[in-house]
Amino acid sequence: MEILVYGIGGVGGYFGGKLANAGLNVSMIARGEHLKQIQKYGLEVESINGNFKVKPKVATSDISKVPKPDLIILGIKSWQIPMIASELKPILKKNTIVLPLQNGADNYEKLIEVLPKENVLAGLCFVVSFIEKPGKIKHAAYEPKIVFGESDNSRSDRVMKIHETLDEAGIENDIPENIQLEIWKKFLFICTVSGIGGLTRVPVDKIRENKFLYEMMRNSAREIIEVGKARGIPLNEKHLEMVFEIINSQPKGTTASTQRDIMNGKPSELENFNGFIVKEGKKLGIETPVNRYIYECLKPMEEAARKSK
């Protein structure tokens, strides 16, 4: 199997590294100094589960230089999907599978606007990892896991083949009964903490300690649930409480990656998180005042970050 990992940040670097470390044919798309270091010395992964170093089959920024893949794993940000999907078109074979692992609720829909539906799966992942320095990924916490499936939740041959491949690489993975629900459960968590974190610029424990902000988080989450339900996702109060159990268990100093992007003046996933909820709420006739407040307050910074990138 020819595998292309597009985007070698924390997500793509960790999972792509694991696949390459298992001896699979892995090509990597990266940029800048990070790419140069990978080309020269290979990709280093420092992990709580054991360190390793790999040399990908191909490491490049030029997609035309990679072998036509059987599986493409997207390690990019959700806001990059439309542009990257167009770039992928020329290298797709009839049976190439594209697996998105981004945060966000509508990545599958964004992909099938550009790519043939038969080439795309739905997916998400759990991992706490990041680029520590060019050429090196640090996996700092959490047992990494990929969750994926067909849009109709069938257990197709290709889904089972990817399951076997991930097993071979020692990557925990799951094919759930309802992939859309799993995507929204993670989205409920990440959207709830990201925007308010970017707005307050403090870690999640500081937000938890403030009664007003904590209630604001809960109201934001309730709006997300209502929008999800209107889109046919079976979210309920149980999922709200599950998310707040996770929020309440986050270690002191924890921040979300989107929050860090906002604080560092980088383009972020704001549009795909709180912005998405505001726009979907408007379309579906659901009021989303908390998410709108967060979104509108952060939007000028997001626009400035995109102009400067």
Mind explaining what this structure looks like?
The chain contains twelve helices and ten strands. The chain has two domains: 2-177, 3-Layer(aba) Sandwich (Rossmann fold), CATH 3.40.50.720; 180-308, Orthogonal Bundle (N-(1-d-carboxylethyl)-l-norvaline Dehydrogenase, domain 2), CATH 1.10.1040. Strand 9 (136-149), helix 5 (157-168) and strand 10 form a beta-alpha-beta unit. With 309 residues, it is an alpha/beta fold.
Quick synopsis:
The chain has 309 residues and is of the alpha/beta class. The chain is built from twelve helices and ten strands. The mean pLDDT is 96.
What attributes characterize this protein structure?
alpha/beta, 48% helix, 309 residues, five-stranded parallel beta sheet, Rossmann fold, globular, pantothenate biosynthesis, 2 domains, KPR-Related
The first-level CATH class of the largest domain is given as: Alpha Beta
Low confidence ranges: none
Ends apart, CA distance between termini = 35 Å
- Report strand %: 15-25%
pLDDT averaged over residues = 96
Q: Indicate the CATH architecture of the largest domain.
A: 3-Layer(aba) Sandwich
Indicate how many domains the architecture comprises: 2
Radius of gyration: 19 Å
Strand line-up across the major sheet: 5-2-1-6-7
CATH homologous superfamily classification of the largest domain:
NAD(P)-binding Rossmann-like Domain
Strand runs, count: 10
Which fold name is given in CATH as the topology of the largest domain?
Rossmann fold
Sheet having the most strands: 5 strands, parallel
What general outline do the C-alpha atoms trace?
Answer: globular
Residue share in helix: 40-55%
* Structural class based on helices, strands and sheet pairing: alpha/beta
Number of helices: 12
Elements, N to C (H/E) = EHEHEEEEHEHEEHEHHHHHHH
